[in-house]
Amino acid sequence: MKKKTIIVDKRKFCEWYIDEDTRDGLGDNCVSGLIDEGKYHITLQDCLDNIGYLPLSMIINKEVIDKEDIDDDEIEEPCPKYKLKFAKWKKR
After folding, report:
1. Which domain holds residue 58?
2. Which long-range contacts (CB under 8 A, 24 or more apart) does 49-52 make?
3. pTM for the full model?
4. How many structural domains is the chain composed of?
């Protein structure tokens, strides 16, 4: 069965995801990667693909989500069932 694609608002995701705790965690991962392997690389898509839950407020096409997957205005563990993709970024 083909996965349904959820389109995520990149700006809203960044504002929600990149808070102080996330910066601390990413910083720790970065330092560990640099020490262990001499390099570190992560993309915003990597962050989205490894998200534990996703608030509905940042999803553009909510109509593709199965009702049974919605709990408390969010989707728990969206990646196994759905493909997550950012909407095209419009530069200001």
Report:
1. 4-86
2. 49/79, 49/84, 50/79, 51/17, 51/78, 51/79, 51/84, 52/76, 52/77
3. 0.82
4. 1
